[in-house]
C-alpha cells in the first residue's frame, strides 16, 4: 500500500522544500522504491499559467499539458518521473471543483463548507492517480500559519487518521538563524513554527533545519526536546555549492534513513549514490569554460528561467565545461550597442517570452549571432524572433512581424487558430480566454532527413513540450527556404513549423517547443549538449 510523505515549511519561505522533496524522492528510488511527487499550492489562481514569472518564477509544463509550479521541474530532474496534471493542485483548482459540484447540485442542498467539502476534494487529489507507487511525496507550498494553507493542513491531518498507522509521515522545514551579534544559533523560530503545526493537530516526524553553519549537538537536542521529535530526526540542511549535491548531503545527514525508520521500514541497505557523485564531480571540476548570453525579459530573477538554467548546466556536464551565463535584458540593446555585450560570448540564446516589450533587442541579438557566426539557440519566442530577423534581413520581407504585437503586413508569425491534439481538433480565436488555452504539452514533431537536428536527435520523430499561442506561418516556408532557412521539423501533418535552422552557419537552430523541460543531469538534452559543444568550438576560435 502507498505510503505518504507530507512536506511543509515554516518561519520563512524559500527554505528549499521543493529540493528536499525532489532529493528525497531520488534517495528513495536509489533504495529501490517507486515514487510520485506532487505539489499543493495554496494560492487562488487555478494554475500558475497566467502568473508573472517575476512573482512566481518559471511555469513548468508537463507532457499532458498542465502549467505548473517550477518545483515540478526539480521533481522530474531529480527522479526522472514525468509529472502529470494530477501532480499539481492549487486552492483555485480545489475551490473551482467544489463550486462546479455545488452548481451541479452534487451536494443535495447541503451547506457547502471548508470542512468537509473542501478538505474532501483535497484528499481526493492526494489519493488520485498514484500508480500504486511505494511513496507519494506531497509538498505543501507557502508557510505554516498562512491563512490559505489551512485547508491543506487540515486535509493532511484527516488523511493521517484515515491511513493505517505508519503509512504517513510529516517532514517540516524550519530556519535556524545565526545571530552575529551574540554569536549564537537560535532555535526559537523552529519551536514556534512546530507549535503552530501542533496547534492544528499535526506533529512533525522529521525536522529539516536550514542553517548557515553546523548545528551543534546541544542545539539539536534542544530542538528535539522542545519540538517533540527524536534527536536523530533533526536533520541539518546547510547550503551546498550545487543543487545536485543535495541528495548526497541529505543522505549523509541521515534523512532517508530517518524516513524509513519513521515508517518502521528496514534502513540497513546503503543506497548507491555513485551517479549523483559523478554529476557533482563533473560540475565541480570542469576542463574548460564557455560563456552564453541569454537575451530575455525576466533576467532579473534566475527562477524565471529555472529549467533553462539547468539544461544549460547539463549541456556543460555533457561537454565537461562550466557554462557561465550572461543574463542580458534585451531592452538594453535599444539604448546601447549590441557589440559591447555580445562580442566576447561563445553562444547566444533567446528564450521563451511574451509581448512586444524588448523584442527589438532580441531581434538585434539574432542578427548579431547570424552575421558573426556565433552559435544561436532560439527557444519558442526565440525561434519566432529568429524567423522575423531572417525574413526581414535575408529574405527582404520588410513588413515581417508577429501578430502578437498587433496587425502585421507580413505575419510570418501568426495566431495559432487550429491544431490537432490526438484525435481532437483545438480551435482558438483572438477572444479566447488567456488561462490554459495555449497549445500546451507534448506533441510529436517530424524531423527532416539530412538536417542538423536530424543528426542531433538521431531520430525522425521526436516528442517535445509546448507552450505557445502563436506559430511560424507555414505560408512563408517556400520563400524563407529559398533564402537559406531550413524548416527541419514540422508537426506530423506538415502544418506547424516546429524547428528551423540555417545551413550556412556553425550552429543556428530555433525550436517552437521547450527542450529545457526535458533535460536531466544524467541525460542532458541533445540540443543543449550540441549547442554547448558548438560554443566550445567557438571559444577555441578566438
Ligand atoms: N509569445 C509566444 C507565443 O505565444 C511565445 C511563447 C513562448 O515563448 N513560450 O507563441
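Sequence proposed for the structure above (542 residues):
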Amino acid at each position: 500500500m502507498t505510503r505518504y510523505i507530507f512536506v511543509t515549511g515554516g518561519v520563512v519561505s524559500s527554505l528549499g522544500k521543493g529540493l528536499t522533496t525532489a532529493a528525497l524522492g531520488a534517495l528513495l528510488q536509489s533504495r529501490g522504491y517507486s515514487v510520485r511527487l506532487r505539489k499543493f499550492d495554496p494560492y487562488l489562481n487555478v494554475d500558475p499559467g497566467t502568473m508573472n514569472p517575476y512573482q512566481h518564477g518559471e511555469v513548468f509544463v508537463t507532457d499532458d499539458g498542465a502549467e505548473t509550479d517550477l518545483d515540478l521541474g526539480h521533481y522530474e530532474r531529480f527522479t526522472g518521473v514525468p509529472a502529470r496534471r494530477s501532480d499539481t493542485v492549487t486552492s483555485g483548482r480545489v475551490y473551482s471543483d467544489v463550486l462546479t459540484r455545488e452548481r451541479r447540485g452534487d451536494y443535495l442542498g447541503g451547506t457547502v463548507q471548508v470542512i468537509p467539502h473542501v478538505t474532501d476534494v483535497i484528499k481526493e487529489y492526494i489519493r488520485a492517480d498514484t500508480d500504486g507507487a511505494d511513496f507519494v511525496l506531497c509538498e505543501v507550498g507557502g508557510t505554516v500559519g498562512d491563512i490559505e494553507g489551512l485547508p491543506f493542513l487540515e486535509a493532511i491531518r484527516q488523511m493521517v487518521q484515515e491511513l493505517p498507522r505508519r503509512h504517513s509521515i510529516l517532514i517540516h522545514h524550519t530556519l535556524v538563524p545565526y545571530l552575529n551579534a551574540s554569536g549564537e544559533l537560535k532555535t526559537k523560530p523552529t519551536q514556534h513554527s512546530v507549535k503552530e503545526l501542533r496547534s492544528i493537530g499535526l506533529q512533525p516526524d522529521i525536522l529539516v533545519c536550514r542553517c548557515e553553519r553546523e548545528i551543534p549537538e546541544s542545539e539539536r537536542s534542544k530542538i528535539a526536546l522542545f519540538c517533540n521529535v527524536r534527536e536523530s530526526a533533526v536533520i541539518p540542511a546547510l547550503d551546498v555549492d550545487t543543487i545536485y549535491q543535495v541528495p548526497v548531503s541529505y543522505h549523509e545527514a541521515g534523512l532517508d534513513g530517518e524516513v524509513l525508520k519513521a515508517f518502521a521500514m528496514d534502513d540497513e541497505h546503503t543506497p548507491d549514490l555513485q551517479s549523483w557523485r559523478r554529476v557533482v564531480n563533473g560540475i565541480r571540476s570542469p576542463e574548460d569554460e564557455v560563456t552564453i548570453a541569454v537575451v530575455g525579459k525576466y533576467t532579473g530573477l534566475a527562477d524565471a528561467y529555472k529549467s533553462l538554467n539547468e539544461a544549460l548546466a547539463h549541456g556543460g556536464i555533457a561537454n565537461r565545461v562550466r557554462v557561465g551565463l550572461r543574463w542580458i535584458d534585451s531592452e538594453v540593446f535599444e539604448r546601447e550597442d549590441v557589440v559591447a555585450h555580445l562580442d566576447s560570448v561563445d553562444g547566444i540564446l533567446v528564450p521563451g517570452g511574451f509581448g512586444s516589450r524588448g523584442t527589438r533587442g532580441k531581434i538585434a541579438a539574432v542578427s548579431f549571432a547570424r552575421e558573426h557566426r556565433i552559435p544561436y539557440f532560439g527557444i519558442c519566442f526565440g525561434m519566432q524572433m529568429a524567423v522575423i530577423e531572417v525574413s526581414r534581413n535575408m529574405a527582404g520581407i520588410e513588413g515581417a512581424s508577429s501578430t502578437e504585437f498587433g496587425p502585421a503586413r507580413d505575419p510570418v508569425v501568426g495566431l495559432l487558430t487550429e491544431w490537432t491534439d490526438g484525435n481532437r481538433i483545438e480551435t482558438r480565436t483572438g477572444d479566447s480566454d488567456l488561462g490554459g488555452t495555449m497549445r500546451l504539452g507534448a506533441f510529436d514533431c517530424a524531423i527532416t532527413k539530412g538536417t542538423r537536428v536530424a543528426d542531433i536527435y538521431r531520430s525522425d520523430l521526436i516528442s517535445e513540450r509546448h507552450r505557445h499561442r502563436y506559430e511560424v506561418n507555414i505560408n512563408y516556408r517556400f520563400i524563407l527556404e529559398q533564402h537559406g532557412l531550413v524548416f527541419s521539423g514540422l508537426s506530423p501533418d506538415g502544418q506547424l513549423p516546429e524547428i528551423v535552422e540555417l545551413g550556412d552557419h556553425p550552429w543556428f537552430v530555433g525550436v517552437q517547443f521547450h527542450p529545457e523541460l526535458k533535460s536531466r543531469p544524467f541525460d542532458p538534452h541533445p540540443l543543449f549538449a550540441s549547442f554547448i559543444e558548438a560554443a566550445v568550438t567557438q571559444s577555441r576560435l578566438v
